[in-house]
Amino acid sequence: MKTLKLTTLGLLVLAATSAAQAGTWSLGASALVSPDPYRGNNDRVYPVPIINYEGDDFYFRSLTAGYYLWKDEQNQLSVMAFYNPLHFKASDSDDRHMKQLSNRHSTVMAGVAYTHKEDWGSIRTSFAGDILDNSNGLIADAAYLFPITAGDWSFTPGAGVTWNSSNQNDYYFGVSGSESNRSGYKRYTASDSWNPYVELTARYQINSSWNAFFTGRYIRLSDEVKDSPMIDKSYTGLLWTGVTYTF
Asked: Which segment of the chain is annotated as a signal peptide (predicted)?
């Protein structure tokens, strides 16, 4: 498994260093808000610089990088890696029981992604695993998206579902025996889960070079996550907005 992780990461690094200069670049600034599902007030706002590159073989999209194995007008298959910002820092929580738990760290996931486009919309899928050995978990995702253009505006609503492996859930939402003794929470071992979601991306073409965007996603948490003593919400998600300059 470690050999596979290192090989995948090595392929992405090699692709990045050999990417052609003839692709499209976008630079910008944005803010990412992620409602935290953990008990206590832990919602965070992240400033995210935008550095996007789209080439024939390689792409980089702020928090995601990938190398195309197959790319045409209808199909895109790539190996990719992305930053998963989910984490828990006990000292930041305002809940006295949560302060007694261990930290959960954000990580980098790597795997494969495939998108198929038709007139009726597109299907987006991905499968990735933790390559930093934090959770040693797996995540799979599948969604249907339908782009709509109206003048300078474009909208892409979508719906999908995410599967998280038991290792992924247990790392972020499980409560170990030692944590149970310190915090007073019952010990909890999380199994795998399916979390449905809806999303919307809106873009406004300010001029030929400048764009503004907004992305929102609402994720309904499964019972396997909600049953954790660490969780007091039935949902999570994200709000992401910013501006970009393309050249």
From this structure: 1-22
Given a cut of 80, whether residue 177 has pLDDT beyond it is yes
CATH of 24-246, one of 2.40.160.40, 3.30.1330.10, 1.10.150.80, 1.20.1250.20: 2.40.160.40
Domain ranges within the chain, ordered by starting residue: 24-246
CB atoms within 10 A of CB 231: 19
